[in-house]
Every structure is written in structure tokens, then in C-alpha cells.
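LAB NOTEBOOK - FOLDING QUEUE
OPERATOR: T.R.
BATCH SIZE: 2
PURPOSE: Compare the predicted C-alpha cell outputs for two unrelated chains run back to back under identical settings.
PRIORITY: normal
REVIEWER: second-year student, initials M.K.

ITEM 1
FIELD SEQUENCE / FIELD STRUCTURE:
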Amino acid sequence: MNSTMIPARPFGSVAVAMVTPFSHDGSLDIESCQVLATKLVDDGCDALVLSGTTGESPTTHQPEKDALVRAVKEAVGDRAMVIAGAGSNDTAHAVRMARSAEQSGADALLVLAPYYNRPSQEGVYQHIRAVTEATALPVMLYDIPGRTGVKIEYDTLMRLAELEQVLAVKDATGDVAAGFKKMHGTGLAYYSGDDSLNFAWLAHGAAGVVSVAGHVIAARLRALVDLMAAGKLAEAREEFYAQVPMIDAIMGAGQGAVMAKEALKMLGVIPEATLRLPLVGASVAELDGLHTALATAGYLS
């Protein structure tokens, strides 16, 4: 694979949808946010997504979101893009989130279809357009119908791709074949939003990954992306296969935020794995399985 075959990467190639560390009392732990962000960038991330699903955005308030952006920008500087989530089922609220993120220093926005109220495709388009045009920041769309309850359909993506600021899609639909057609049709950069499909997405021409398992395996994700860019498909396949047990340990139960925090606590990166309701901590069996996976993979002695 020569350099002309490497896809455009407007938001880097290895991103982590970062958890939001909280202190034992549930308050925002700014110091741990900065420690974690720095570690992730040191491990090979060139972008960080803040206040997304994994960042428990539904239970953090705007002043906390703003403080998080400022703290992470201070910690990583220009070494990584800081992408702020602007997701809400209230368009006016999402617009305020976007503007506040821009004012706090975010480099880009992650914008998704409204959740729960299941608007029409025209409603999806108008919502995303309003949020996009509220700032001057570049936008990565987030298509995750399993959480929002509504897809961003092909024709809607085609319309959104005409907006100058919309540059990419984080795809968590689970449908790589359909995503491949959307990627080709829209000309947008595509990013894997499902750790278990990272290799498949990269093989189909994705620009990179937005990972949750990357809290632990960011360096290995960097190796995977670099092997794919170098055209070393067989080596990349083996690298991904080696990542699967850790991906399963963190994402297998569908509670990425929970398990990522527990893993980071076990590794000594953050002092607490505190969550805000309605999320609750992992079970004893889940913790035992996670500890075993970390030890087997060589992250714990």
C-alpha cells in the first residue's frame, strides 16, 4: 500500500473515546483527566473524544464539560485533537453544548442524531445542520442507531456531506458493508466506532478508529493502523487477533465506560472507578475476568 492509498485523516487515525474520571464522591477529577489524557497520547493517540457516551456525557453538566476540555487541552497541547461531544435530543441544547465547547478550546465536535425522540430523516438532518453551523469547528458525525434509535440514512449523509464543516463519520452501526458504500458515496472519512470491527473497517479504507478498548491498548491500535498503512495485511491481521481478548474483556458486556474505568484503576492510571447513576460498577465475576485478561495480556504482573 503506497502513500496515495492512505485515506485522508482529518481527525487523526487513533482516537480514544475517553472516560471522565470522577473522585470517590462523584465530583470531576481534573488531575486524573489530565493524567489519563497524557498517557493516551503518549501511547499513540492523536485524537481524544471527550463527553461522549463513554465519557458519561448524559450525567455531566456543561461547566464540567467545559472544564474537561480546558484541562485536556492544557495537558496535551497540540499533540492531539480534542473532539468534544455535542449530543442531545434537544437541538437548542446541543447548539449550546457546541458553542460552549468551541469557547473552551475544543478542536472539533462529535455530533449525533437525536436520541429517544426518533425524529424523521428531515429532523435528523436539520438537527445536525443546526449544531454544525453553530460553530466554526470541523465535525465528525456519529452514527450509532443502537443508542439513538434512529439511523443516519444514506440520503441524509449525502446531504450532510455537502456541509463544509462535516468531514467524517464515526460508524457504530455494525454494518461495514453498508458503511463502505456510504464512505464511497459521500467522500467522507470513516472511523470505526466498534472495537471488534476495527480491522474490518481499516481493511475497507477507514481513516482510523475511535476506540474504548484503547484506554488499555492504544499502543497496539497505533501498531495496527501503521501496519495497515504500510500494506502489511497479514501482520495487521495477527496484531488485531492479539487484541481481541482485551477488546472482549472491556466491550463484551456492552458496558465500555464501566470496564474501561475498572481497567484503568487496576492499572493504577486513575485512583477511582467511580460512575454516576444510572451506570453501576462491574460485578465480582466481571472484575475477575477483567483482571485475568489484563494479566494474560501482560498489562498486570
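ITEM 2
FIELD SEQUENCE / FIELD STRUCTURE:
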Amino acid sequence: MCTMLEKTAAALERAQARAMLNCIAELDPTAPDQARLIDRQLAQGQQLPFPCPILVKDNIDVAGLHTSAGSLALADNIAACDAPVIRSLRRRGAVILGKTNMTEFANYTTAGMPGGYSSRGGQVIHAADPALSPSGSSSGSAVAVAAGIVPAAVGTDTSFSIVACAQANGVCGLKPPAGTLPWQGVVPIARTLDSVGSLARDFSTALALYNAMRDAPLPKVQSCAASSLRIAVNTANNDMVSPGQKAFLHETLNRLRSRGATVREILQEPTPLQQIIMQWEFMPHLEDYLRSSAASRRTLREIVACYLENPGTMMKYGITLLQQALDKTPCGLRGEPYLQAMEQRERAIRVTRHELQDVDAVIMTGPTNIMHFCGLASVALAGQKTDGHGVPRGLILYGADELRLYRTAMTLEQLLP
């Protein structure tokens, strides 16, 4: 059986061998020392539920490493201490191998920025096909898992940054309910919607990584008989689904029905109100993070000025979202558009939870952001069949009850074609 030091050394070798994917922002030189400590703890009989080398997205504080969120404007921000989720991971046996590249400011820099691009890190490359987008914003974490560098990695998700990224790279992703994991030490977009989460090759590992970030673990989650499942299929924007994905969904649903699962349709459409919350929360929440950071720039105005002063290196795709958050959010969190959006969000949460009270999980077909807007847990599963690019086809699920959702995901993973 491999020691943690051997596992860590092997992961570092894989990171070097796959450097062309540009998924890693920096490696932690203390990783071997971390591994030796864990080996000593295990030898002494300590119970460590997650002894594993992992990588962490570059918008989460890891002591001694940069937290730049992919931006050159924060290139001097070296974390003095670990974010709470990282402290929890270390207590559970994780070795922090280093940080992953990401879409700049978690894809809240400009409209149309390519997934996986940042001014500090450059472009992350898809592991299966360089012509494909690695998606975003947890691009580096997803690619590192897909390429086999690490068994699991930490990401963040405000609106599809884990689950869509996982689906695009053929791995599993888990975004817990908003507010479940502590937000301290994480560069935010909007704390109402943000969540730290996990990416892994299989759902059990993604769930174990999430558990290791929690203050207290969830009750044990086990798969169940497919006949007991109650599945809803969200038909919103179904016309936007590719023929290949439609065929995969059809085959998956037939498998569920043949095993006795209850399957019905539901309509939960996307909402533009999520963008209002993101725009109005971005500046005050970012500046709250910056005040306790080592970054020399402490305000969004200073960050925008940095971009404008360095167009050659930082303005390849523009800064439309940063500029709008700076210029179009007077009154901060007291702005009337923001307060109205938050009021309507509360109403949407009540309606959505009522609609899903007898549903174990919803399968998303066409794109909808309702689960992110309402702060529900969501999961991306990878199947065994691959598309024309060699990426395993997958599903995105969400639900109002996270334990029922995870049980469904564990069961579905075994049934996916």
C-alpha cells in the first residue's frame, strides 16, 4: 500500500508530465513535508478520513501561496493563513499539492471571456482534446482531475462553475447548498450564491472531498434501489440540447423507468435576476475579502484602474463585468434593483422547494440557472459512453434535499450508460 509521501510524489510527477495542459498555477513546495506528517499520523493510528493529494482553485486561500483569482491585479496576494475549508481538509488528511488556474475572477471579468483563460495563468487546455473549451471557471481543477494528476480537486461555483465544468471535462462535480461551507478566505462573486465544492473522477470521491471540507460530516450516504427513486426532468430550453445528449438522456431515462423509477417532467426556467444579485454583491463582497488580504489593491476601483493601465497584458477580452459592477451599483447592498431581486429570490425559493418536496432529484436538460439562483445543491455525473471527442457524457442534477440528491446521484452513477 502506498504511503502519502509516495502518492504525493507520484502526483507531482504527473503534474510535471502534463504541464502542457496549463491547469496548475503553482505547486506547494511543502507538499512532501505535508505528506510525511500525514504518514506519521497514520502510523500513530490516527483516523484521517481523506488522506489524498489534491489541488485547490486559485481563488481560495492556502497559506504561503498566491490567491490571485487568475488576475494580475492580485498577483501580490500571498495568503497568510488557510481558508477554513482548507484547514478542515488538512485535519482530514489532505495534502495540498498546489493551486489551479481558473477563468479570471471566476468568470466575472468580462462577457465572452473563454473558459479557463486568465491574465495571470493564461489558457487552460482541455485534457481530452485541445480544440475543446475546458469550460469555467473551475477549469484547472476539472482538467487536473480529468488528466489524472490528482484524484480530486477543490473548485468554486456561483453559476455552473463546478457542475458545467465537470460535465465539459467528463468528471464528477458537487456544488453543495449555498452557505453550507464557510466563505472566509475565498475571493467572491456574490456570497448569496457562491459555494466551494469538489471535483473528482467518481461521485463517491467528490462526496468524500466535500465531507472533508465540512465542520461535521454528513450522515452516511448510500445508493438505493432505482425503483424507489422519484425523478423530475426539467424541460426548460430542451430545444438547446444537442442530438447526442438527447439520445443519452433518452437512454438514461429508459433505464430508470425499466428499473421502476418514477419519472415525470417539470418546468423550471432560468431567471435573469441572478445576474442582478451578482452585479450588486460583487464590489462590496470582493472589497470585504481584500480588506483582510495581503493584496496591495483593496478596492474594485483600484483593480479596474490596474486593468486600464495595462491593456496589453490584462485587457485581451475586456472588463465589461468589472466595469458594470463598479459603475452601475450605486447604494451598494441597499440598491433598489438588488433588494427587489433578493425579495423575488425568497419567493422563488419557496415555490421551487414546494415543487420539489416529493422529488429526489431533477435532471437538467436544457440550460437553467434556477438551482443556483435558489442556492440548491447540484451534481454533475460522468457516464461511461463518450462523445466524439472522447469525453464521457454526463448529467447535471439538482435537488431541494441534499441527502436525497446525493443518494440519487450515487444510484444513478451505477446506471448511467
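REVIEWER COMMENT (ITEM 2): The CA atoms of residues 22 and 122 lie 8 Å apart.
FOLLOW-UP: none requested
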